[in-house]
User: Fold these one by one.
Assistant:
Number 1:
Amino acid sequence: MRDYSNFIIISIIFLLSLFIINNPYFIHLIILSGIFGILAIYWNLLDGYLGLINFGYAAFFGVGAYTSAILSMKLNITLPLSIFIGGILAGIIGILVIIPCLRMVTFSTAIVTLAFGEIMRIIASSWTSLTKGEMGLWGIPPLFEGANKKPYGLVIILLLLLGILGIQIILKTPFGLAIKAVRDDEISSGVLGIYPSRIKIIASGISCFMAGIVGGFYAHYILTITPAIFGIAYTIQIMAMSLLGGKGTIYGPLMGTLVLIFLGEGTRFLEDYRTLIYGAIIILIVMLFPQGLAGIYQKFQNIFKR
Amino acid sequence: MEVFLQQVLNGITIGAVYSVIGVGFTLIFGIMRILNFAYGEFFMIATYIAFFAYKDFGIPLIFVLIIAMILLFCFGAITEKLIILPIRKKAKDWSAGVIMATLGLQVVLQSLALILGGGTFRGIASYLMGSLMIGPLIISYERLLILTISIFMLIATLLLINHTKLGLMMQAVAQNKEAAIVSGINPNKIYTISFGLSGLLVAVPGVLLMPILYAYPTVGQLPIMKAFAVTLLGGMGNIEGAIIGGFVLGIAEIFASAYISTLMKDGIAFAIMILVLIFYPSGLGQFIKRYKFSRSKI
């Protein structure tokens, strides 16, 4: 039970804040935090727990978004099903991309996935008959009718909580232990009867599947998507959230997401100097706490234990 | 046939530029095992220096190049001392922290450029008119100059790494840091110098590509993508590999745009890169057997 105390606290905070807050702008921020929170957490499953850097993570998010949007617009497939198909497709593509990377070293994997993201972006912007190119897809059917954003918030928060719970359970199973073993030493884990390649394939499948699901949700929430969502800018944002929060922790990426989203919005009054201050704060946090926000949290815990 | 040869020549010119960009990026990775995400912004600073020195102050191009190289060397060294060094001192595994810090630096430099200079494109049409005819082939003097200086920089880098004391010290730190310390090398100094060298190298294309890549806040996006691709094609941290990789990428891109589609140019180049990596996972540099910057396992 003690392991799940953090989970319970976070679910209470999120659900309460959703019921208390009525301002649509803040609800939008909560939804964004949910979307990027899931992405950061599942990016971290690959980087923090498995040691596999995926620089094209936004591409899987984009695959989910485009698949679900096109399926629901052109083939009239009902909504939750099309999102699910998008997730499955993203997971399959994630597995296909990771297979050639199995022989390469970590950083090569990073750049192969980056190249994959760029290729997907170029395909999405040049296949105009299907994706409408740079103009982007618009007129995507919304997930819920009406202007109220609360149902979206509820869905994404439930998805986020489900995602956190899922990752906690995965890490407790033998499969989760195998993931960590592969990260720490691939050769000796192989000696112990773990197939590192199999672990990598399954873990990237799970991670990319989640990215696809969230992408589908995003498409039916924002209602307009452009090829830019495949780009490196989104991946860098996800990476920044995850690394700022702390590599190899469950709640670190979530904290990083909240800090970066609310920092980005909270510094709007600085106008032109906003991004400057934003970047400077990131540098300062990293210089003071190289382990990320999770490192700060751990320091506090140690103080109270004494 | 003439078209083919002309494309090869164009590819070699672009490839030489890519090689210089890639070598600067791979140098840091080879020695320090970090990815410098602010590398594109080093390029951006060089383009601004080039524009102001050449257009506003009217300094001759060759001095502009030297000034930019010196300034970028200092900028790289200061970046290492001010930002990377504190992170290295604090954490044992600093790769994630350094990625974050350089990402932050990227944001800071881009917004500084936007605040100070606005979002306008600053560039010149050309700094050298005319072109040279070799039989059926045409190469403009500008491109010839870019090709010559890039190849000169590549040879100078190779000589520095292989035949000077500083280069040998860099190799020693890259291969085994503890043993290097025992033999009296100060790794912090080497790290600072290599960061400076990386800035110095990227200043060269930054200045010379003035008529092609204008100075504006996000001009660094293109060079850093190329740097990633070249570094990977050559094998991470392998300098000779990066040189080969740069030429391969340049020629592949030119052929893709000449014979297949200009729109898909970058996509095809990346697809070739992935194909090469499937068959040669450690990059093209594996054909050159000496891995200077490969870390020995203890």
Number 2:
Amino acid sequence: MIHIDRLRYSYGDSEVLSRVSASIEAGILCGLFGPNGSGKTTLFKCCLGLLKAPRGTILLDGKDIYSMNVSSLARIAAYVPQEHRSPFPFKVKEVVMMGRTPHLGGGGIFRISKGHREATLRALEMLNILHLADSRYDQLSGGQRQLVLIARAIAQQTSILFLDEPTSSLDFDNQIRIWKALRKLAQQGITILACSHDPNHVAWFCDRVIMLGRGRVVADGHPRTAITESTLKTVYREKCTVKRIDGIPVVVPETIATQGSSELPQNPSRTKAQAR
Amino acid sequence: MTTLPADLQANRNEAVESKIEFAESRKCLVILVLSVLLILGSVYALLAGAYHISLREVIAVLSAHIFGVENTPVDRVHNTIVWDVRLPRVLLGVLVGFALSTAGAVYQGTFRNPLVEPFILGVSAGASFGASLGILYPGLFLNLQSGALIFAIVAVVLVYFASRIDGRNPIVNLILAGVIVSSLFQALVSILKYLSDDAGLRAIIFWVMGGFYYANWSDVVITAPVVALGFGIIWTQSWKLNVLSMGDDEARALGVNPDWLKLVVIFLATLITAIVVASVGIIAWVGLMMPHAARMILGPDHRFVLPAAALMGGLYILICDTLARTLTSAEIPISIITSVLGAPYLFYLLRTRGRFGFTE
């Protein structure tokens, strides 16, 4: 469970988050949606204790994050970063094993016990990437790397999961794969907050959407009610239309929706003919 | 793509799983082999030298000291050479290798940069200045070592405070402050060289080149506990160093406090570097090379890299120092040997970059 109450954050004079409040129940896959600069990343960093907000409270599973030390916080919430590079050629299994760190007690100096290996392998298995266990993490493709980082968060066995743009640099197939994996995790009772640029992904896969615009919550609720033409208008300058295909909402730029195919790239032969 | 029936899928997973091992036994074996090599190397270093002493006589001297002098009569010359000259030198060499390699591994891991070495925070420049002061004004310090140690610490403290912003020490600031403080102290050393007479100049140059000429038991007794304790504490943090190498934010999200961990390990790495530099001067390349070599053999896991680098560093200094004192009738400064042997290795590393040790 995530509970955010009247959170404020500023970088110098510019306020990035102004009185943001939200409450997300256990087992919900919640999308945090908003354009660049809307404060998504700042909100994330505050929730993970990476930034200290001067005003407001954040409770994770009912505990104030600022009253917890780094290691107890890491037993409650896991973080899947967006872009990732390691300077060392760790193996996939070692990267996923790092998720066990908050549970290692003394710091896991020497032998890592069987239970921790089990948890590592289960996490890989859950995402069907067990075959990558012995590959070098730095040589994987972007999609595989993202899956490995999610596996690491699963191995961390927390009740809350934060994902920063989990699909932004991936191809279509991998995007769908990641969202399906997240749905599976939410079904197991894990609370997930995933930020995304893509209104369609959020509308299709999330149980709930929090839409941020200029540091404020613009809409909060089921995707059908949160992602509408009027809410999109408040965050984007470009107007959008929400179409429905068999009841599934699809967000389309208005220019495309109204003028139809004439705005789309033309068939090359026709373009040539017009040029003459 | 076809989907396998559930039970077949499970079987396949088990088959894959049984192949995944965490390969710790192999890595432990490598470390055991390195330890044995280090012991053999030490014994060879006790035998090697201008004055020929047999293995039996070396053992006689050692057992006389370890099990009591009365039991076995020992030749006094042998005793002096083995116990008072060669043994402290061998032990000090191993300690220096341990300290510099451990510090190198820590710096490379925490700075997430393959090119850093233990002297990056100004330890060597500070120590050179302290030692030069001690050479020119002998009454100033208790001895050369203490002068070197004091200024090594002064340099690092300066770097620490110069790089501190908002309660943190960003890595870039640390490195830049290290460069600034190092060049400041190097300039100060140049002033001292300029003011010095010929004998003093010669002494400064030899000190800076580093060497084990004057190694004695008091050096070993002062250095050993500091290096052992420093290494021990750093080793207990080695898994967290793996996590830290992923970056500060991730380390925090994985339950490791990056600021605190960096402070502890960098402090200890700097302390053990300062203490060995103060007693033997600046010995080049070891701290840069050995962590790379350890990673090439064992992979990047610091739990194994740290002890392997330390053992290899000890062995490397032992070999270089033994060559330094036996190749010619006069002694060659050890840094010349560590560099001449080290440069080809680093060339090799440069040519194969990306394949081993570091990504990118």
Number 3:
Amino acid sequence: MTHDKLTRTLGWASAGLGVPLLLSAAPAARALGIRDGTRQRATMTAVGARELASAAGLLGQRGPTWLWTRVAGDLMDLALLGQAVRSRIVPPRAFKTALKQDDRVRLGRTLFATAAVIAVTGVDVYAAVTRSRGAKRQPRDGMVSLTSSVTVSQPRDEVYARWRQFERLPDFMAHLDDVTVTGPRTSHWRATAPFGQTVEWDAQITYDIPGHRLGWQSVHGSEIRNEGDVRFTPAPNEQDTEVHVRIRYSMPAGKLGEALARYLGEDPHQQLDDDLRRFKQVLETGEIVRSEGAPWGKRARREFPQHPARPLSARELRKVRS
Amino acid sequence: MKANCWVKPNTVRVENVPDPTILNRRDAIVRVTSTAICGSDLHLLDGYVPTMQKGDVMGHEFMGEVVEVGDDVDGDKLRVGDRVVIPFPIACGACAACRAEMYSLCENSNPNAGMAEKFFGHPIAGIFGYSHLTGGFAGGQAEYVRVPFADVGALKIESDLSDEQVLFLSDILPTGYMGAEMCDIQPDDVVAVWGAGPVGQFAMDSARLLGAAKVIAIDKQPYRLAMASRAGHETLDFTQVDVRSALLELTGGRGPDKCVEAVGMESDHGTAPIDAYDRVKQTARTESERPHALRQAITSCRSGGTVSVVGVFGGVFDKFPSGSWMNRSITLRAGQCHVQRYMKPLLKRIEEGQLDPTRVITHTLPLRRAPQGYDIFKHKKDNCEKVILKP
């Protein structure tokens, strides 16, 4: 159950309203001063069912979604009540005739209910707005943020040194085609972006603490804005090295592009995980393991569908080695 | 070359495929002299292991002669001409798992680790001929196989033992042995083994070797129980007796101290309703296993005892007897065998005559008749226990 007190209170309020509406629609209609007819009863039952669904959602799930459905429900109720009020003040067939006594009582009840719903709407809007603010996880600056970690059975200095050889990062990073070091702190990068595009950018090292930490970012005005950070920390056994990578970059089409790429099988989180796995392979075994089903080495995105797990023909081998 | 390939569920076919080539610098190419059909191959045949593809070469139990080695293969360990048995898990020998001798958990040998991770939470090692989840490596039911990290796994056979005596070091003998070893057998222990297939038989022999006072085989095939009986083990036919009562009878009311599950995901059951329940769920893909033997092993085991699982499971199942397991302090252990850890010690036991792996062999067929071998093994025709194929 949710731990947010206001959300929980609203959940129980929904339940408290939903049960009588659903179980005894006719008395509920009378209490609200609404005419008792088949259509009105059906509306009452539907509203009751909606309230119970809201109650279940509010009490059972995290997140602001169900608070917004409550707001929507409030607006619907106000519309229904407004209709009921209008039908009393302007009776279509008895225009200009005075309101009868019991009609006045009913109108009073309906107006009271309307006032109550308006008050509740205020509370619901407040809850939904405040609870929605905290729920955003990704900053909305169009940057994709990735993190991944791997433990390598090598001393920290060696793992750092291998990563520091930027020219050799393309050995294991699937999307990197080429890295050229252009100065003591600068380098030029070329990579394959989703949908077969090539992107290039210049990067500069922002900090470099040998054996510990390395940070870089693209220079101002780059086609693809990106920044990254790698930390090398000793594993609990003091012999192995934990590699913690954080990368942020702007996708050509932001979030939409990322979603589309993921749909086409290029989940960037998966790519980074696989890149680090290959980094570990290279350091621990000297090369990237290949199977008949996945003979491509680092070109993992060619994996699906895979080659059957049977030896490759001479032609397929030439393609793999090219 | 000829190779036995998976075509679709319930169909394997011997096809002509290209000869294997070196893909990594520590590869070796082995000319296969003997290979076998494993019980777990039947799970692939039946279509219960995901990520099989049409044309995949089957087989992870094989041995033969090294005919080619990659540039980086350690010449002190492996040369062309060596006679070798190949362990089924592919292991690099350098990662943390390999250094801890947990070879089937090698962190570097599965190029499809990302895929395996999605199924299992964490990846497992590459395995020959055993779906793309375990790497998509071509298997050993073929004339030639490429063996990655060949200088880590391959066991050289330098004595004049026959293929039949050493072939099972590739999988089922170490697997059965590990099943018994995980039981941490004490003198006076009674060990019950579910499944009298080849792995179960070797688990029984190993349990006795490790000091068990009594070993009980549980199966429903009379010929398999007779095979266990000939090897000196007690037997229970679960279609004839109530297993729990019979085990209590055989153990003075205690229940077996240690239990080995050597059945896995396609268990049969003596009681029709539970069997029907699991079959319906497995067919509807709402559970991937029919785990009856495991459930029964847990509930039958003595309080405070151990259940060791070497039968193969692939996904998820329900109706796990968690109350019995937790409240009665049952230790549950499992694992794909870390074959490399056991090969040399078990080879020594074979040489000394303590173990006779040949006792389970019932059929030897040429490789071209592999589909027939699968058929008789799967349907338990002609009292089939273990099929060896000769390329």
